[in-house]
Amino acid sequence: MKAASFSYVKPAALNEVFDLLERHGDRARVLAGGQSLLASLNLRLSAPELLVDITGVPGLAGITVSGGTLRIGALTTHRQIERSPEVARHLPLLAQAVRHVAHVAIRNVGTFGGSVALADPAAEYPACAVALDASLVLAGRGAQRRVRAREFFRGLYDTALQPGELVMAGEFPLSGEAYRSAFLELARRRGDYAIVGIAAHARLAAGRISDARLAFLGAASRPVLALRAASLLEGRPLDAQAIAAAQATLDDDLELPADLYASRATKLQLARVLLGRALGALNG
Amino acid sequence: MDQTLLTTLIVNGTSVTRRVPARQHLSDFLRDELGLTGSHTACEHGACGACTVRVDGAIVRGCLMLAVQASGRKVDTIEGLSDSGELADLQAAFHRRNALQCGFCTPGMLIAAQDLVTTRPEATREEIREHLSGNLCRCTGYQAIVDAIEEVLAQRRGAKT
Question: pTM for the full model?
Answer without folding.
Answer: 0.96
